Amino acid sequence: MEAPPPEISYAAWGRAFFREAVSVERVLAAVNVLSGQPVDLRPLGVGPGRVARVTAQGAIGEAWGHRVGDDPVAFAVRLPVAVTFTLDLGVDKQVFAADLEVPLLITGRARADLTITLDIEPPRPHQIVVDLRAQGLRASLTKHAARVQGELQRFVARYVAREVEKDYVLRVRTIDVSAAIDRALVTLAPQRPV
C-alpha cells in the first residue's frame, strides 16, 4: 500500500486547489457554451454618409487558449467568429467572408463565500483580428472604401461583450465550491435501506 502524500499547509492546499479547479480545460468549457451561437448583424450603414448597408450572418466557433498567470490565475483565450456578409451599395451587392479572432482575458477570482468566479475582460474592437476575403475584383475594391472591417470589429466586440454577461454564461462562470462539496457528499454517503 502506498504512503499517503505529505501534509501541507492550508494556504498551500488552497493555492493548489484553486489552480486545479480553475484549469484551462474548465475555463474553455465555460467559454464554449457560446460555441455555435448565431451572429446576426441587421442592416447597418457604413462608409461615407453611411449610404452603403451591411448585413451579416455567421456563428461563434470553439475557443482555444492557455494560462498566462498564476497570481492571479489568468488565461488568454481566443474565440473564433465566422461570418458571411453582404455590402449593399444601392445599385450593386458585394459578398464578403470574414474569419474573426476575438481575444478574451479571463481571470479566476476567489470570493469569501467559497465561490470561484471567472471574470471576462470584454474585447476592444481594435484587438479583434479580421481576415476579410472579398469575392470578386469589384468586392475587393469596395471593402476599404466602405470601412467594412472596422464596422465588423465594433459589432463583434459589442456582441461578445453582451453574450458573456447573459445568464446562461454567468452560470458557468460561477463555481459554488461549498454546494459542489455538498452534492459530492450526497453521492458518497451510504444509502439507507427503505
Description:
With 194 residues, the chain is α+β, with helices and mostly antiparallel strands. It has six helices and eight strands; from the N terminus they run H-H-E-E-E-E-E-E-E-H-H-H-E-H. Strands 1, 2, 3, 4, 5, 6, 7 and 8 form an eight-stranded antiparallel β-sheet that branches. A hairpin with a 4-residue loop joins strand 4 (73-88) and strand 5. The two termini are 36 Å apart. The relative contact order is 0.15.
Primary descriptors:
194 residues, alpha+beta, 6 helices, 32% helix, elongated
| Classification by helices and strands | alpha+beta
Output the number of helix runs.
Answer: 6
Largest sheet: 8 strands, antiparallel
β-strand amount: 35-45%
**Alpha carbon gyration radius:** 23 Å
H/E series: HHEEEEEEEHHHEH
Distance between the termini: 36 Å
Task: Kindly state the percentage of residues in helix.
Answer: 25-40%
List the helices and strands and how they pair.
Elements: H1 10-21, H2 24-31, E1 38-46, E2 52-60, E3 64-70, E4 73-88, E5 93-110, E6 115-121, E7 129-134, H3 137-145, H4 148-163, H5 167-172, E8 174-176, H6 177-188
Antiparallel strand pairs: 1-2, 2-4, 3-4, 4-5, 5-6, 5-7, 6-8
